Amino acid sequence: SPHAAVKEAGASTYVPIVGTILVICNLFMDGFTSSSQDVLVKTTQAHGNPLQLLSNVSCLAWTGLSLIVFEFLPLNDYTTPELSTALHFFAQAPDALYELVLMALLNAVGQVFIFQTITHFGSLTLTAITVTRKTGSVFLSIFINGHTLHFDQFCAMGLVLAGVALETYDSVKGKKKHGKKD
Fold first, then answer.
1. For residue 76, which phi and psi values (nearest 5 degrees)?
2. Is 143 left (phi over 0), alpha (psi -120 to 50) or beta?
C-alpha cells in the first residue's frame, strides 16, 4: 500500500539520523571521558588499579542508588521496580545470574588492561586500540557473515582506518622527535 511505502521511507531516513546522533554523542562522551582520565592520571599520579577500583565503586554506588530509588517510585509508564524485577528474573532463570557474574568478571579483566593502558600510554593510545578493535570486529563480521558495504559505509570505514593510521604516524613521529632531543 502507499502508506506502507511512506512508513518504510520515513523509517529508512529516520534510523540513520538517530544512529548518527548516537554516534556523535558516543564520540563526545568518549572524548570527554578520555581527556578527564588523562588529567586525573597526570594530576594525582594515580595508577590503573586504584582508578579501576574507584570507577567500579562509584558505578556500584550509583547503580545501587538508582535501583533503590526506582524500587520505591510510584509506578507509571516510565518507571518499574527494577530491583524486584531483576531478582524475580534471576529466580526464574538462575543460569542468567551465572552468565551475568561471568560477564562482570571478564569485564573486570578487560578494565585492568584499559586502566593500565591509560596510566602508561594515555587515552589517545587507548582510543586507537579501541577503534582498531571495533573496526576489526566490523570487518570480521562483514567477512564471516557475508555482508556487503554500501559506498558511504565503505568511505566511513576508510576514514576510521585513516584516522587510526594518522594517529599512529603522529605518535611514532613524536616519539622519534623526543628521542632525538634526549
1. -155, -165
2. alpha
